[in-house]
Amino acid sequence: MINEEFKLYEKKTGNSRKMYEKACEVIPGGVSANIKYFEPHPIVMKKAGKSKLYDVDGNEYVDYLLCYGAMILGHGHTSVVEAVNKQLQVNGTAIFGTPHINETTMAKKIIELFSGIEMVRFTNSGTEATLFAIRMAMAYNGKSKIAKFEGHYHGGYDQVLLSVHPDIQKAGDAKEPKTIKESRGISDYYVNNTVILPFNDIESTKKILKKHADDISAVIMEPVQSGFIPADLEFMQELRKVTEELDILLIYDEVKTGFRLTLGGAQDIYGIKPDLTSLGKVLGGGFPVGAVGGKKEILEIVSPTGYGDILTPSASNDDKSLGLFHSGTYNGHPTVLAAGLATINELEKDNVMNSLIENTNYLREKLEGLYKSYNIPMQTVGMGSIFNIVLTDKKIKNYRDMNSADSKLRKEIDYALLELGVYSKPLNRYSMSTAHTIDDINFTINAHEKAIKRVMGRR
User: Fold this and answer.
1) Assigned CATH topology for domain 78-347
2) Which of 229, 253, 316, 339 has the highest local Cβ count within 10 Å?
């Protein structure tokens, strides 16, 4: 059946196919990030505005991918554009390569909004932020292993590119998952030093953590798995308690959830303070950014004062082993932080976040009612301004539960939606923006009904 949707899709996106084929001649797989690919070829975009994307064939789409959630104000928001232009014009440069005022301003804003953050260091991506948070945790308590949850994604590097989307037949017991590589090129060292935990199963998680307590420096987790499967409150509370008891740091990866559930992220909703928090996506207002925040006593081990300099020739480096090195030419980029501050300022305006959540809930309720009217088992799973469409009646609490969903039907509907003008990568979650209007939402609901009729009519 999906072949029929492929034919319609390819007919509508012929220029994208041609441009993709040219890209494949000079870029491996034709994409700069593997997640940007989907069969038979991805859509090549030409421009964007507010809630819309426009491809090289002239097609218009209501955008629910939103750069995987980063564009919470939609595309080309006036305040962000003005802030970036002002920074470039007033400062006279894109970047100083020195400290600047936006770093302090943004750090103060993050500390004000996130209950678990007392100090901040900036990075260039969410991936860098999680990587740095893990290294910080290891440096702080001197243990060599980390623990992560099955189904959670923290970036494309060796230490955490494990058991993100494992084959269940190879992944072992649900209560004690095996560590499964998700890429070639990953050393067995990381397999042996990364412990996999079962999400939303606190008793099994406790048992594993206690078994490895002497070796685990930190537990890193997405409070909302994949951005749409929330942790149970009791699970979060007990996890915080047991990590404190075992002297294991708790890292919240809020790259997806930061500013999207509330301005203070998932930790605000759960009322729990992690030891470290990683941020990204929304924080940059459409530009690449990351940040690590947390307890002052942990963050201060990064301070260069009092420690050696490993990069400057002839500088004293006698004490370098006492410090935690962290650097990056573009860390705290003034243009990026200007865009991020403008984004946060918009979200802080009266009723902006409330309206965003209300519109998200409206779309979720209407879609659930629509699918029910066609007797298709379906639920929207999510929190705040993010959700996913899961075609099953079974309660979804972790990665393995997603196996009960009808992904084939969902995929067919997604390709029909692309042809009808609703954009997200097939099988991906939906992210909402403040730019989505009621007309956009109603258009989306109508498109879903057309897609259902078309796909089910062939079954």
Assistant:
1) Aspartate Aminotransferase; domain 2 (3.40.640)
2) 253
Tokens of 383: 């929190």
How far apart are alpha carbons 312 and 310 in whole angstroms?
A: 6
253 is catalytic: yes
Torsion sign, CA atoms 412, 415, 419, 421: positive
Q: How far apart (Å, rounded) are the C-alpha atoms in residues 256 and 35?
A: 15
Domain spans of the chain, in order of start: 2-76+351-456, 78-347
Strand-pair partners of 294: 119, 276
Q: Which of 52, 206, 256, 281 is catalytic?
A: 281
Q: Could you count the other beta carbons within 10 Å of the beta carbon of residue 208?
A: 19
Give strand pairing partners of 224: 230
Task: Compute φ and ψ for 372, nearest 5 degrees.
Answer: -60, -40
Q: Point out the catalytic residue in the list 55, 63, 201, 253.
A: 253
Considering the candidates 9, 153, 399, 423, report the single residue annotated as catalytic.
Answer: 153
pTM above 0.85, yes or no: yes
85-142 residue pLDDT tens:
999 999 999 999 999 999 999 999 999 999 999 999 999 999 999 999 999 999 999 9
* 295 is known as an active-site residue: no
Q: Which amino acid is at 169?
A: Q
Whose CA is closest to 253, among 276, 273, 272?
276
